[in-house]
From TrEMBL:
Cross-referenced SMART domains: SpoU_sub_bind
Catalytic activity: guanosine(1145) in 16S rRNA + S-adenosyl-L-methionine = 2'-O-methylguanosine(1145) in 16S rRNA + S-adenosyl-L-homocysteine + H(+)
Functional note: S-adenosyl-L-methionine-dependent 2'-O-ribose methyltransferase that catalyzes the formation of 2'-O-methylguanosine at position 1145 (Gm1145) in the 16S mitochondrial large subunit ribosomal RNA (mtLSU rRNA), a universally conserved modification in the peptidyl transferase domain of the mtLSU rRNA.
RNA 2-O ribose methyltransferase substrate binding domain ranges (all copies): 49-127
Lineage, opening ranks: Eukaryota, Metazoa, Chordata, Craniata, Vertebrata
Entry annotated with the keyword S-adenosyl-L-methionine: yes
Provenance organism: Mus caroli (Ryukyu mouse)
Residues that span the membrane, as ranges: none
Protein family per UniProt: Belongs to the class IV-like SAM-binding methyltransferase superfamily. RNA methyltransferase TrmH family.
Subcellular locations according to the entry: Mitochondrion matrix
Keywords: Methyltransferase, Mitochondrion, rRNA processing, S-adenosyl-L-methionine, Transferase, Transit peptide
InterPro entries named in the record: Alpha/beta_knot_MTases, MRM1, MRM1_MeTrfase_dom, Ribosomal_eL30-like_sf, SpoU_MeTrfase, SpoU_subst-bd, tRNA_m1G_MTases_N
Protein name: rRNA methyltransferase 1, mitochondrial
UniProt GO cellular component terms: mitochondrial matrix
Length: 320
């Protein structure tokens, strides 16, 4: 019944639109119809616009989203490379392809840097956190899950996910509360890594960390450059990321851009990692941007990976 009501409302909306156009002596359809916003659809049918070459191509390859249509900028002579692949995949799947002009595509993408590519797709949402355990890597002692509490800047989140994917993080866990959703801006900032990564969310981050600690995982929090007063008052040991030894499954926990880890999450940590500066720092510069810090911390940990397939390593060296 609700579905019929929704369809009826949308039909009446179109009818009123065409009637007003006809009264003005204009031809209905065409540009006028394209101005109907996606927000006029029912929430269950609402789409979002994914933009950028890598996010769109990786989203098509991963096939985790429903794709309504592909928009390729008109006027680009001879689609080649990844753009040609986008077109081939879309046509093979029966996805409608439109060729709007640059000005129209700019407006559709909110004047973001779209590289001449945009797709109207269903939203991508984190999976429930209990599914993360079902897809874990067994008894591997060097599992690394990245846990993010309250990251709110979409570009920070995207940059963090790009580094995590590049450096071999197994899972990304986010707090469901006060965290940035998986938006097209996040996907663009991640260079499309968001489209292929396993991202999970939990409504109870402290409870999740405590449960993993009981299973033998090491819960490692992060702090900015600690002064003497912090080092002496902290009940949780603090060590430089360069001195950390990765010999057991580990959860690396990073806090929000402004306040860092909450007290509840901080209390769940068994160890704190920090990045020591190479000079004396004035007040206000004791810490790094969260995405920069994440890259440094992950590299210092993941460089200790003991098992790396010889063939894959040789191929990487050959490609470089």
């Amino acid at each position: 019944m609700r579905r019929l009501w929704t369809i009826g409302c949308f039909s009446r909306l179109i009818a009123r639109h065409f009637s007003s156009v006809a009264r003005r002596g204009e031809r209905p359809g065409g540009e006028e119809l394209s101005r109907l916003l996606l927000d006029d659809l029912a929430p269950a049918q609402r789409l979002e616009r994914l933009f950028g070459l890598s996010p769109c191509l990786l989203a098509l390859r991963a096939a985790r989203r429903r794709v309504a249509r592909l928009l390729l900028q008109a006027g680009k002579a001879g689609l080649q490379g990844e753009r040609a692949e986008l077109l081939r995949v879309a046509e093979a799947r029966g996805i409608p392809v439109l060729r709007p002009r640059r000005q129209k595509l700019d407006a559709l993408c909110g004047y973001q840097v779209h590289q001449g590519v945009c797709m109207e797709v269903s939203p991508l949402r984190p999976r429930p956190c209990d599914e993360a355990a079902d897809t874990s890597s067994g008894d591997d002692p060097q599992q690394l899950w990245l846990v993010l509490e309250g990251l709110q800047d979409p570009r920070n989140l995207g940059a963090v996910m790009r580094s995590a994917h590049f450096l071999g993080v197994d899972r990304v866990i986010t707090s469901r509360r006060n965290s940035c959703p998986l938006t097209p801006v996040v996907s663009k900032a991640s260079a499309g890594a968001m489209e292929v990564m396993d991202v999970f969310a939990t409504p109870d981050l402290p409870g999740f960390l405590q449960a993993k600690a009981q299973q033998g995982w090491l819960v490692v929090g992060t702090v900015g450059c600690p002064g003497p007063e912090i080092s002496q008052s902290s009940k949780v040991p603090i060590t430089s990321c360069l001195e950390f030894v990765w010999d057991r499954p580990t959860l690396l926990v990073l806090g929000s851009e402004g306040s860092g880890l909450s007290q509840e999450v901080f209390a769940s940590c068994q160890l704190l990692l920090t990045i020591l500066p190479r000079r004396h720092l004035p007040p206000g510069l004791e810490s790094l941007n969260v995405s920069v810090a994440t890259g440094i911390l992950l590299h210092s940990i993941c460089s200790q990976k003991k098992v790396f397939p010889v063939q894959e390593r040789g191929q990487l060296l050959q490609d470089s």
